[in-house]
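Case study 2.
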Amino acid sequence: MTPSPATTEIGNRVRWVIILALLYCACLVTLGPTVQFSQWYIGPDNNQAAAEAEAWLDGRLTLPGRGGDTALYNGQVYNIFPPLLTVICFVYYGATSWLNDGMPLVFFTPLYVLIVAAPIPLLAYYAFRRSGADTHWAAVLAFYAIAGTCLWPVAGMLGGNAAMVGDNRAAWIYSIQHILAQTGLAIILIDLLGRRRMWLAGLGLLIATWSRQTCFLYCLPILWIAWNQPQRRRALILAAIPVAITIALPGGLNWAKFGNPLETGYRHIFDVDNPNRRIVLGADGDVHLFGLGHVPGHAKEMFLVPPQVFTTHQGLRITGWGPRTALWYGSPLFLFTLIDARRWWRDSVRRVLMLATIPVIFVGLMWHGPIEGSSGYYRYTLDYSLIWMAAITPWTTGPTRRWIVLACLAWSVFYFYSISGNP
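Prediction:
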């Protein structure tokens, strides 16, 4: 007897729920002991964005004091990071203050984890479904994107590893930025590889850019794809509106703080009393945050430098020779972006997405160094790793390739588990 369409639909939904539940369980079981979500804590005392949210509630932009990377400009202290986390904290603190005046401005940990980290498995799963993976394989690739990349140790900086590097890392804003950006990048992929509503890709761009500024370069494939839609004018309008909003809020904040919409204030971290000022000082005595001279060294670290493998009384251990290690060693799956280059090049959407990662990578390579928080990995690879995985997804599903991908996954999980104790 052939089941009715309604019965088949119910069965598919039940299977989908079970697969997602297993994906979340796998992430919790694998990452939980080192990431320790229950220890995630954020408040104005340990995070610049949370302190700025408190300042917004008081009707000001200035912070009460310097903590972490903050800008000292005209005798005032400002947050210099993109605004997404500030907006999230501002909404939460405003709501809790309205409901219970006098309540401490501390994010309720389960809700904090739910907003920052919980969307990633679901959205990554949908991104790989749109990329061409079947129901089960999309869950495998989503697990790889979380446990088989440096997203694992980066998230660990907020929980288990925080105690190893000082309490100031318990809400290390750089880690939170990378994690939030994954949500935005996944939404971009879901839309551009799916129905191409364009406004949804624009929303993903906003989330990613308000977390990591370099992700704004993904507006290029969004606008290019909108230009090539059958209803070009409508698609461009739907894409341009969120792109404009993405620019407007950070630009307005920059203008209000520093008098220039293009001035993020990062250079003002390095005032004369900052011991790291020498890192960014040029021959002219001025602060230079970007430079072509940084490219060779950073490129070597991102793509060539091997990890250090050694044994202790606890067994095999892996770490970096220096602060960074090339992405191929921890995530060998990315080698397929080179092996399958001709294949993804023939797909116009995948091609333009992959091409957009080139300026994203290059801007990161031009950034001054050293790159903190990257022992055994290079955290800037998170700005494009999800794009690369989506680009090669259709060619990971063959009988031979599946076993190769599973072997890569096993190695990657072992690798990032091994370095998870290294801040």
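The chain has one domain: 16-419.
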